[in-house]
Amino acid sequence: MVGLSMKRAVLTTAILLSIGVASAALAPVANAAGSSTEERVARLERILQAKQESEFQTQQRLDTLQQEVLDLRGLNEQHGYQIDQMLKRQRKLYEEIANLSAKPTASTATTPKVSSTSSSLTLGETASYEYAVNLVLKQRKYDEAIPAFRGFIKKYPDSTYAANANYWLGQLLYNKSEFESAKKAFDTVVNRFKDSNKRADSLVKLGMIAEKVGTVSAAKVYYQQVIKEYANSAASRLAQQQLSAL
């Protein structure tokens, strides 16, 4: 009887052990959340791969932006140099003509006065223009330069120097406060010589003349035209300054 009971106990224990081993073989290793180790590893691998791809794309964008910054810096330095050279030339020009009507030129009793108009018109086109310019820059004979430029414009209205000659004439007249005549000269540059490098400056001068004669609304129109048509130029910056002061 005892032997039969022991056999049953051993058999029951063996059956229970077999069930336990089978259950252990079938059940995956789970974490606290109920996921298997393989699933956790796969999920971590996907997260790591996505992170690496994101970092790679970010680095690519940073590299692209860095190159763009370098390119823009190079262009900025180039433009800055060009603007600096242009401003230096413009300052030199303005220094030469800033005081055009400051001092009259005295003539001596022993030296006969020669008409600047007749003298310049006897020369060729280039020499005639240079003669008028030299009256301003070298000899500082500003009053004589006015008829010299007028004579040149009359004889060579379509000259390659005509736009500059009209601008010079307008500047000389502006400094003598002869605003109506100066306006005609600058208008000629603006309307007849649309490709001239003096056109933007002439528009600024027209705005300044409009200010001088009290037509502020017209001055604003001129300055806005310069800013629109010649953005990022020295004339545009000057127009912006004049406009801000109105």
UniProtKB/TrEMBL annotation:
This is Cell division coordinator CpoB. It comes from Shewanella violacea (strain JCM 10179 / CIP 106290 / LMG 19151 / DSS12). Mediates coordination of peptidoglycan synthesis and outer membrane constriction during cell division. It comes from the Bacteria. HAMAP family: CpoB. One of its GO terms (biological process) is protein trimerization. It holds the Pfam family TolA_bind_tri. Belongs to the CpoB family. Residues 36-110 form the YbgF trimerisation domain. Residues 1-32 form the signal peptide. One of its GO terms (cellular component) is outer membrane-bounded periplasmic space. Its main location: periplasm.
